[in-house]
């Protein structure tokens, strides 16, 4: 058989992953929320939803996060305030402030910016925030309702990832998803949203889920990720997920964000848990860092605040009627 002429050989160049633009999707969601809030206030004769942030100490990153959240609130028509408290505040004093916020009918959403100083029990504080105003979704009652696939305020980062997947039209039904990281704020609730029955109240994603963590042997981690249709990583370990760990065409969602020193530029930069430049050569979809999951977390905080405001308004109306 004579060889095929080179000019007759069609070479198919590998395509890089489609970038999931979290910044753009979050912008769209904020626009939708702005209109929904405006219509709700007009049609239901309601005041604007109100969000109160509690910031303890002078952590620069926390201050930036809260500032960005308050900016997003203003953009969608949610009023807000920040209670800046000294890092020396006692746990009892902080609980007293939260009691006032829980009982204030003019406050719809409460967020306590984490981390808190070491002398304050974070779990106790998160549980003390009224579950009706717990827009971070960290109260144990809200987490319990999520685990039972019931309507609740869902942690913002997993909810944002769900929205990214949904709006990118990525199929999850019956697919294999691997979640790397088992934190109570991202990994665990993400697992619940991925695997639960989409017919129920949380509108979950019906995937088959494997969760990996710090004690998963590296060889097993690689094998499990290689089998996955969807890989979601939230470990805080820069570059943990490599190109040879990803199945061609898989979806890769990178929650990690770490500031590292770039030897090429001599400056610091933000990176994720995924070796982005190489993984995007084999993945089908991928989120960048920054500009992927981060903006969605803030957008979902705004959505949760609006949801909480509507439910609290309905509750007040019911009490008035009765």
UniProtKB/TrEMBL annotation:
Gene3D superfamilies membership: Leucine Dehydrogenase, chain A, domain 1 (3.40.50.10860), NAD(P)-binding Rossmann-like Domain (3.40.50.720)
Catalytic activity line of the entry: (6R)-5,10-methenyltetrahydrofolate + H2O = (6R)-10-formyltetrahydrofolate + H(+)
GO cellular component: mitochondrion
EC number(s) given by UniProt: 3.5.4.9
Residue intervals of the Tetrahydrofolate dehydrogenase/cyclohydrolase NAD(P)-binding domain: 155-311
Example of a GO biological process term: tetrahydrofolate interconversion
Coiled coil, from the record: none
PANTHER family named in the record: BIFUNCTIONAL METHYLENETETRAHYDROFOLATE DEHYDROGENASE_CYCLOHYDROLASE, MITOCHONDRIAL, C-1-TETRAHYDROFOLATE SYNTHASE, CYTOPLASMIC-RELATED
Subunit structure: Homodimer.
Name by which UniProt lists this protein: methenyltetrahydrofolate cyclohydrolase
Organism: Chironomus riparius
Source species taxonomy: Eukaryota, Metazoa, Ecdysozoa, Arthropoda, Hexapoda
